[in-house]
Amino acid sequence: ATFSFLQDYFTDENRVLKKDPQQDYHLEYAMENSTHTILAFSRELHTCDTNDKSITESTVRVIWAYHHKDMGEAGQNYHGSNRGTKSLRLLNPEKEEVLSASLLHFDLTNKDVPVPDKDTTYWCQMFKIPVQHEKHHVIKVEPLIQKGHENLVHHILLYQCSSNLNDSVLDYGHECYHPNMPDSFLTCETVIFAWAIGGEGFTYPSHVGLSIGTAADPQFVLMEVHYDNPSYTEGLIDNSGLRLIYTPVLRKYDAGVIEAGLWVSLFHNIPPGMPEFVSEGHCTLECLEEALGAERPAGIHVFAVLLHAHLAGRAIRMRHFHNGEEQKLLAYDDEFDFNFQEFQYLKEERTILPGDNLITECHYSTVDRIRMTWVRKVLM
Predict the structure, then answer these.
(1) Equal CATH topology for 104-254 and 269-374
(2) What torsion, rounded to 10 degrees, do the Cα atoms 283, 284, 290, 294 define?
(3) Neighbours of 313 (CB within 10 A)
(4) Taking CA atoms, which of 24, 201, 251, 260 is between 20 and 30 Å from 380?
(5) Can you give the residue ranges of the DOMON domain (predicted)?
């Protein structure tokens, strides 16, 4: 016979493990073989137990540790180095992968980019979309991060550029936002895709795709890669980028991106030593009226949100107002993790209409800083 045990413990401020008098975790299934121990368990999202953390749509840090021997009479065996953490969203519904056989792909990757030995670098490279003359839908985008560079590549943005450019703009990459960068980069203003560290690939819902191949679609795109090199490592050469998976089988709707948040500027700064500092970005009624009024009077349907901030970020909330009345939060993360940024799929699509308001609320902590902080941040 095999015996399975699952117990509800918590730790105090001295990291001492204590058995919880209110046992809220229930064993559903257990299995062990020569390589794996699997315990499946369930718990109420809110247990009304002060020793338990409520499970919300925010990021959760799961901590794990194990010892090769079972728990003895004397209590737990110390795990040694067999431990770790993982950030995840327990309530983020996973998209079912229903990928058909008629799939094609192309890669947009940097070619031997020398990453400077400085803290932060934004590298820009222009690409031409290889799909021309016929409409297709991109249905999935995957990050192609060079092995070993998982912490170097912080985020990748894809911008649509002017269609009046010629192929000479494809010849070389350059630092973005640099006085000497090519003028052609200035024509690339609309974000069509975003990926950030810790995120997996992004699959569009089954009725939506990113349109490519027609005259109105992006011909030239600019890929902006943000490199984080806080240890000033020299001689790094990077070949990371994105893979776009597409199909000729068209879907009902074309996808786009609406950006909201604080404009990236030196006017946005955070004083040092602040345990809580809130900045708000307002996408005003007038702005959404003008942006959607002519082209999308019936509004746009939001199916996923990417919340993005940098190291001082602690929480982000996307507020939505309709006819002056606040709706349910569009998206939020009260436990923001800089190293885990991925799209949150909304459980139900939300309509944003001309005349609505969006407020991006960014909460920061600079307790451990002695200098002013200037922040680059955008929310998708």
Answers:
(1) yes
(2) 80
(3) 20
(4) 251
(5) 1-67
d(CA 257, CA 47): 38
Radius of gyration (Cα) for the chain, nearest Å?
A: 24
The DSSP secondary-structure symbol of 72 reads B
Q: How far apart are CA 326 and CA 128, in angstroms?
A: 42
Higher pLDDT, 124 or 5: 124
Contact 246, 134 (CB under 8 A): no
pTM of the model: 0.78
Q: Is the pLDDT of residue 380 over 60?
A: no
Which helix (DSSP H) or strand (DSSP E) does residue 290 occupy?
helix 285-293
Any idea which fold 269-374 has?
A: Jelly Rolls (2.60.120)
Among 68-72, 293-297, 306-310, which stretch is predicted with the lowest mean pLDDT?
68-72
In the block, which residue shows the tokens 């590298």? 123
Kindly tell me the burial class for residue 323, based on how many C-beta atoms sit within 10 Å of its own C-beta (0-12, 13-18, 19 or more). exposed
N-terminal to C-terminal alpha carbon distance within the chain: 53
The domain defined by 104-254 folds into: Jelly Rolls (2.60.120)
pLDDT in tens, 253-274: 999 888 899 887 778 899 999 9
Domain assignments of the chain as residue spans, ordered by start: 9-88, 104-254, 269-374
Q: Which residues are catalytic?
A: 122, 308
Write the DSSP symbol of residue 94: P
